[in-house]
Amino acid sequence: MxxxxxxxxxxxxxACVVVECNGIGYNLNISLNTYAVLEKAVTCKxxxxxAIREDAYLLYGFSESEERDLFRQLISVSGVGASTARIMLxxxxxxxxxxxxxxxxxNLIKSVKGIGLKTAQRIxxxxxxxxxxxxxxxxxxxxxxxxxxxxxxxxxxxxGYARNSATKVIDNLLKENRTLQVEEIVxxxxxxx
Length: 193
Description:
Blueprint: E1 4-13, E2 16-21, E3 24-29, H1 32-38, E4 43-52, E5 57-62, H2 65-75, H3 82-91, H4 94-102, H5 106-110, H6 117-133, H7 148-158, H8 163-176, H9 182-192
Helix pairs in contact: 1-9, 2-3, 4-6, 7-8, 7-9, 8-9
């Protein structure tokens, strides 16, 4: 099992990062929180979660152990897959999501696309005790240089949203505030899509 990868960041967008280690490029799916940390990095140490399925071998990367631990807890809940967990971690900072679970804030959890009332309640019931007792620590570095609009659009398309819908939402957000950073654009867009 791969625990972490240390290497050069060769490609980065809000949905994935390619880290070159000893001549091999590892493509890791990431959340917006990890993207924000990696945004200016040339090299990084990224924590890994492996998902080995019959039809795919996927790697998920995290900037800190808190985020990886929360991701693993989320995917342990029935009805929450890796994609949904990644969208949740892109919508909220890990501490905010843990707080919402600990305080049983169903409406906040339900505001994430793909999470309905029953799934939100299941997440709270299954994880409330775990998030209250869990102690966390952090790690990593940062990189990238595309326009905020292009990167945000790319991230939303990679997360499964229609290009046309995502474009309209991003354009509206940028009309309101041209200084928004990529991670903030995507967070706001996730709530509107």
